[in-house]
Amino acid sequence: MAKSYHKSRRCPKLLKGRTIPLPFPSKLAQARKFEIDNELLQTFSKIPKYAKFLKELCINKRKKLKGYVEVRRNVSALIKSKQVSIPIQSIMRKKCSLKVESISAQKEHLSPTKNISAQKEHPGP
């Protein structure tokens, strides 16, 4: 015959009246809702126009930039905002290094010195 337990029998008498603090309350905190910001996405889509500027930021991040760089309002706000720039720094390092490599590969492909050397190797009729 199965025993039937009442709810009061499950909890010890010591725990009925008091609450136990959680050891890691941050683990149980609910995550914020993720909202898509269309303006921010549009700003990121315009970033390849500023490839040289981004390359300088990635390479010389500890050095101060000399002179002024003309950027549009959205990119300027994005760079100056600490709330936006701090969370995406690690992502930007990876993405920027990939874009710099692809841009340099494109420039090598279109450089006139490479075309001249290719003509010397394969003389025309």
Automatic annotation (TrEMBL):
Residues 104-125 are annotated as: Disordered. This is Uncharacterized protein. It comes from the Eukaryota.
